[in-house]
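Hello forum,

I keep getting stuck at the same step: I have a sequence, I want structure tokens, and every attempt I make locally crashes halfway through. Rather than fight my setup again tonight, could one of you with a working pipeline run this one for me? It's a single chain of 374 residues.
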Amino acid sequence: MKHDLPCAVVRDLMPSYIEGLTEPETTGAVTDHLAGCDACRSLCESMRAPQPVPDAAENAKEVDYLKAVRRKNRRRILLAALGTALVLIGALLCQVFVIGTAVPDGRMDASAELADGNGDGIVGDALVIRAMNPGSAKGYTGWKTVISDGVAEITAREVLVSALNRNGLANRQISLDGLHEVRVFGVTVWQDGTVIHPAVMRMYEARTPYMGSMWKLNLVDQTVQLPEASFTNELFTDKEPYARALYFERTLTPEENAQMRRAAARMLALVDNLSEVRWTWPAEGGTESASLNVDDVNALLGDMLAAHAKLDTPVSECLICHSGDMLKAHTKLDPAPVPGGASSVKQFGQSPAALQLFDALLHEDTFRFGTQNP
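Reply #2:
Ran it on my machine without issues. Output:
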């Protein structure tokens, strides 16, 4: 039988023809072609024959293999992540419990007292350093002492408390042979034979050469033990001598007035260009005033130092702390005046040891200010 469709066209139409998707005319033409073409008819029969179903067991085996590979990869990823996490955690624990971080300069965690000089292999005078970390969960490690030009710089690192460091307390001892100053965490604790009280160091760190900055004066006020009463300020800096006035909002008791005189004397030592401190408080029928200037204090220095040198116990008490408790001095001060001879209150602000001597003078009977001007 003659057919008009070429084999290539029939093969293109074959899938649609088998599915019954061709038009009737096309279907007839393909049928006629298949009747006369053995090759196309054979192709059509093979395409209509059922396709072999994949072996289920083989498929299952392949799926199991893929699942096993996936599980193995997942375990490797988890183990790698766990290993990385353990390394990081180990490094962190080592840092916080063993290595620690350097205690920053300026931290006043340490106090000191003179030792007998016999112990721990130290011959001669020695200083015992006691440090207490302000963080209850932290301790000290890695103590290091560097001595240069007679100054010993003691540093440490702080770590979290653990079996290696059970608390935040530490005691260290250092020989004073050949030294004139010992600093712990950048803060002087001993100088020229004098153990420096932390409260004195806070005063010394608050020193300022100029009185024109209220911010600087506020830092001074926080250390000189002003009476606990509100006040306003006025600065007289248009011409020398420069002065500062404090106007209290309530009446001062005689004890507070004496406290204010000691605070004024400390201000004169700590602020280089301050020459006079005045203060005023309300009183019956008006106000009362008092003042203290550099000349007032300088006029008393000779008698103060002479009386101080005669004391059997040169320093019986030091600063009154902010909570109101009396702080005991850690050691006896050298009764000798400031090196080079102190002729002015300004010289007492030049070193922590000199400032501590001046503070002791303010608490001795030779300089108990009353309520009247000196």
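The two ends are 145 Å apart (CA to CA). If your local run keeps crashing, start a new thread with the error log.
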